[in-house]
Structures are given as C-alpha cells and as structure tokens.
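question for whoever is on the cluster today: can someone run the full assembly for these? two chains, 375 residues total. i dont have access anymore since they changed the login thing
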Amino acid sequence: MSEKIKLPDGFRSWEADVKIGKKEDKVTIGHWADGCKGCLICVDVCPKKVWKPIEAKNKYNGQLVTVVKADACIKCMLCEIHCPDFCIKIF
Amino acid sequence: MAFDYEKYLRMEKIPHLWCPGCGIGVVLKSMLRAIDNLDWHRDDTAFVSGIGCTSRAPGYIDCNTLHTTHGRGLTFATGIKMAKPDKNVVIFSGDGDATAIGGNHFIHACRRNIDMTLIIVNNNIYGMTGGQHSPTTPIGFKASTTIYGNIDPSFDICLLARAAGATYVARSTVNNGRTLEKYIQKGLANKGFSVIEAVSNCHTQFGRKNNMSDPISSRKWIKDREIPLAKARSMKADDLKNMVITGEFISEESDMERWENYNRALEEYTKAYGDLIKKVKKKK
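^ ran it for u. tokens below:
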C-alpha cells in the first residue's frame, strides 16, 4: 500500500500484518470511541472475533469495544458496513 | 479499503439520534456507497423525507435536503422532479410514513412511474411516536396499541408497489449491507419509480415488547426469517407466514408473465409530461 492512511480526528487505531488466504497484507483498524454507542454489532458480526467489549463507557453511556486480535482480521469489512454510527474504518 | 462517509455527511450532526444498533444507520451507509458508485454530484441530488425515525436521515446528508410533513415526502419530491426533471430525487420513508398515512401517495407515485427512488425502512412499528402498531406489524406481535397481540394482517410493501406499477422493486434486510447497496444502486440507476424495502430492527420499541430488546437478538430474528425469492416460489403459502422474502421483485431481468405487464407504464412520467407540453404548444 503506497498511499498514506489518513484516519479522521478522534479515531484510535490498531495496525497489524495479516495473511489473507496466501496473500500478505497490512491492516489498519480505526475506531471512533466518542461516537460509539456500544451496540456491540461489530462483536457479533466479526467472523474472527477481532472485537471485544470492555468495561469503559463514553459520554453517551455506550459500552466501548476494543480490538484484541488485529492480526486475525481478514478485511471482510462486515464491521465497517454494519456499524450504524460511522465509527469503524478498516484500511 | 474504508469508504469515506465523511464526504457526504454533515459531521457536526454526527453522532446521530438513532438508538444504539438501529438499522437505519446501515441503510444510510449503503445508500451513500451506492451514490458514490454512480458518481452522482451532490448539487444534482435531492433527498426528501416525511416524519419518523427514518425520515431524520436526510438531515445528516450534506446535499439538497427537505424534511416535510408526515407521509407527504413523495408529494414534495414529485414537485421537485416535475420542476427539475434532470435532477435526481431520493425519498427516505419509514413503514408507517409510506404505507399508513402516506399510503395513497405511495401507490399513486408507483402508478405514475416518475423517475424517483423510494427507500422504505421497515421496522414493523411506529418507533418515534411511542411504539404503536403499524401496517407492517406481523400478526401476534405486541405493540403499545396492541398489548394482547396484533390481529391485523400486514401489508407486503413490495407486492403493493409491484401491483401499483413501480418499475424496480426489491427487498433486503439490514443483515446484508452489500446486497442492500446493490439493490439501491440498481434502483437509483433505474429510469422510473423504484422502491427498495430495507427490513430493519427496532429493538427499542418493537423488540422490548416482544422479548428481543437488544440489537443482536433483534437482527437475528430478522435473519432467521429471511427467505430468497427463488426459494419462496416453490414453497407453500402456509410456510411463508411472517417470513421476509428477499430479492428483486421487479427488475429488467425479472421473468414476468406477459400479462403482468399490462398495467405497467411504458414511459417515464416527466418525459411523457414534457412531450405533452410540446404537443400542446405546437397546436397553438
């Protein structure tokens, strides 16, 4: 990937080297904690259990999530597509 | 690669007011991706809506937007399209907005075959006004006005649109964001009236009264009832009760019987109207 990844302000990011099939790739997972309402859909849809809920809450009283296994990501984009709050970005 | 939603949104209004896990966000995202795939310019596009949870969607899109009266989104949109036939018009509507109070406008917009796209987010209930039952609440399910279970048979929005004469009709659910994107894109590209029904979850009002008060179980309830149209054709009517039949009901490729086409408008409405004006002017 030659172009520089630019996440919007307020996004936390996790980076990892992943293997998708036989192809080596790099993944950047971004999460916007201030906009997250804690619906936990990302935890539910992820086939590789990359996301995990944590105890911390934000100002909307949403239960926050964190990335626990960034290297397991297969870039299926399910979490990005199904996040109703525009909080997840996968590069 | 991540999609740049910020390009199309009024970011000062985000986070939006919908409940955590509400499916309308997924539908809005699918629509923004579809618009991006078609390369529509924001100055050439208008978003119109009525009243309801779904109808808040145009407020978050950085385009020409109009938030109108309950059920009348389609009438305002028809006015925009008649005045500016070269612009694109998209209407957001909920199930109560489109089929209950705006039911008459809905069938007549289908009948005219005017080049607009109607996206109906069907969450089986009136969410914003306090959980009253809507024309799409399934039989036996509870709402704040049907506390012992609903006994009114529900509308099938896609079959209604098909019978009324819409030229693209499809249904998908919030569990399939990519399919929704594909259907919305085809609907937007179609030169005629297109209806896309997105079956969504309302765990706050509908789910709370029916033992699925979190988004995960509410989405699973929809997923368990999904049946593709091709499979549903070979099933008995009794087995299809309360099921969500997904797929394209009317499209260019759909294999309709010839007699089913008898009532379908051949020409797009604004074009037919323009031709009529030219004809009348020539006579004078």
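summary bc i know u wont read the tokens: DSSP finds ten helices and ten strands in chain B. The longest helix of chain B spans residues 24-38.
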